[in-house]
Design a protein that fits this description.
The protein has about 475 residues and is α+β, with helices and mostly antiparallel strands. About 40% of the residues lie in helices and about 15% in strands. It has two domains: about 220 residues, no CATH class; about 120 residues, no CATH class.
Length: about 475
């Protein structure tokens, strides 16, 4: 195993240093100090810093080759929002080819000399002095990383310092002569290309707390799984592909702009199956998106590939059951409830949870709703669930409340009752209350009388039926007499 040792650096060495940041109140990014320094690429680096500040990552370090110098070593820090824009500052030093030779290409060991950007230009007051030092061996076992020969994107735990992971990984390069291959490295994937500078394209090592959204040409991603203090490398989990596919698949949705910042990959997701990964992404969406946008997402997912369709079904069920905690508008609920592709097992909990939102329906809505009720009733595995059955009683109430006498409505209601499990038909007694039964009888005397017969069952006598049995029977008999006289 590589010990990380290299010849001691003799010194002291001196490097020009500089500060880049906004000229005023978060605007006008440029080389701020010293006035006597200029180098090709300074403006490009300033533009990269400005773009990075909008991401609001707290800190990053990097080393990049730049025109006019062998490399620029830098530390950037996000300060916060100012009057005219986001403010971030960068401390940097310029390294010549001779400097790189003198430090044996161990640029990462100069990072402590950069200080912590604080919004001032004091760092640029005098050249950086580097005293002699001896490199330390890596703390982790980096077997299999192969950084000496191949480019790597290392995804580390957000709780770990990306800078420390990077320094340790660079110390693992073996043989030491291969360190010259690593001309660039950064601790962020949130860096845009500007002018002659392409931070990701010029790097051979990237350390980040989240994977890159797209493939980086020539890179292989490794996940640094925490294992005590040492850690070990694991191949990218299959769930990562599902997570990235979710982001790409729904990126065209208007509401995705609000959702995207919340869809941050975490190492804890590495052990999830693709189905569990899709569910987690959808659960995050329920906490971020408004009702209308969430319904759009679910309806689209219902007809997607199985991994997303199945996850959407499960999440929509929970979403319906917890409807009271969401700001579900009537229109959003109605669209989710009546969408042709909404699975039957989703409709039941929605019916159960949100009766008030759809009590007043148009006939075409009621037709679609009764159609959904029939689809549910035909599935015995759903009808054993009391919440689903209660939801179906709400559908039948909706039919009574709507006042429509369309024969297809009556036929569908009868079909729902036909499929109702015999041992649970007492659930339907709520429809024989004095408030509901007259409306049901007015719609169909046969259907109403069929429900009344439930009241006459011995097992029904001790149940609450919303009124005295005599009152119920009086309504029913009256309707039967009128039906017979026509």
């Amino acid at each position: 195993m590589n010990t990380g040792r290299a010849p001691d650096i003799r010194g002291p060495l001196s490097f020009p240093r500089f500060v880049i940041g906004p000229e005023s109140q978060g605007r006008g990014y440029r080389l701020l100090a010293p006035d006597t320094l200029s180098f090709t690429g300074a403006r490009d680096l300033a533009m990269i810093l400005m773009e990075w500040s909008r991401v609001k990552e707290q800190e990053l370090v990097g080393c990049l080759p730049v025109p006019g110098a062998a490399a620029v070593l830098f530390r950037a820090r996000y300060i916060g929002r100012e009057a005219l824009g986001e403010a971030a500052y960068l401390h940097g030093i310029l390294l010549s080819a001779a400097d790189l030779q003198a430090i044996h290409h161990r640029t990462e060991l100069l990072l402590p000399l950069l200080g912590r950007p604080d919004g001032s230009t004091r760092f640029a007051d005098a050249p950086v002095q580097a005293a002699p030092y001896a490199p330390r061996p890596p703390r982790r076992d980096w077997a299999g990383l192969g950084l000496a020969w191949r480019n790597r994107l290392i995804v580390s735990d957000p709780a770990e310092s990306r800078e420390e992971v990077l320094v340790d990984a660079l110390a693992s390069i073996d043989p030491p002569e291969q360190r010259a291959r690593i001309r660039g490295w950064v601790t962020s994937t949130q860096l845009e290309s500007r002018g002659a500078l392409n931070p990701l394209g010029e790097s051979q090592l990237i350390v980040a707390s989240a994977p890159f959204e797209d493939d980086l040409p020539g890179f292989q991603t490794y996940f640094l799984a925490r294992s005590g203090d040492r850690g070990s490398l694991v191949e990218p989990p299959g769930s990562l592909a599902t997570w990235q596919a979710f982001g790409k698949r729904y990126a065209a949705m208007p509401a995705f702009t609000a959702l995207e910042p919340a869809l941050k990959w975490e190492l804890g997701y590495a052990t999830l199956s693709p189905r569990e990964t899709a569910e987690e992404a959808l659960r995050i969406a329920t906490g971020v998106l408004g009702a209308e946008a969430m319904v759009d997402l679910l309806i689209q997912a219902f007809v997607d590939e199985p991994v997303f369709a199945e996850a959407a079904r499960d999440v929509a069920q929970a979403y319906g059951e917890a409807l009271g905690t969401h700001d579900m508008t009537k229109e959003a609920l109605r669209r989710l409830l009546l969408a042709p592709n909404t699975p039957a097992e989703v409709v039941g909990p929605l019916l159960h949870s949100a009766w008030d939102a759809y009590a007043e329906m148009k006939p075409k809505d009621l037709t679609a709703l009764l159609g959904a009720a029939v689809r549910i009733a035909r599935k015995p595995e759903l009808m054993v669930r009391s919440g689903v059955r209660q939801g179906l009683t709400y559908v039948l109430k909706a039919m009574a409340e709507a006042g429509s006498k369309k024969s297809d409505h009556v036929n569908m209601a009868n079909e729902v009752i036909d499929y109702w499990p015999e041992e649970t038909k007492t659930d339907l007694i709520v429809l024989t209350s004095p408030e509901i039964l007259p409306k049901m009888l007015a719609k169909s005397a046969d259907l109403g009388w069929r429900l009344v017969m439930l009241v006459l069952r011995p097992e029904s006598y001790d149940l609450e039926v919303g009124g005295e049995i005599g009152v119920v029977l009086r309504y029913a008999l009256h309707a039967r007499i009128l039906a017979g006289s026509r």
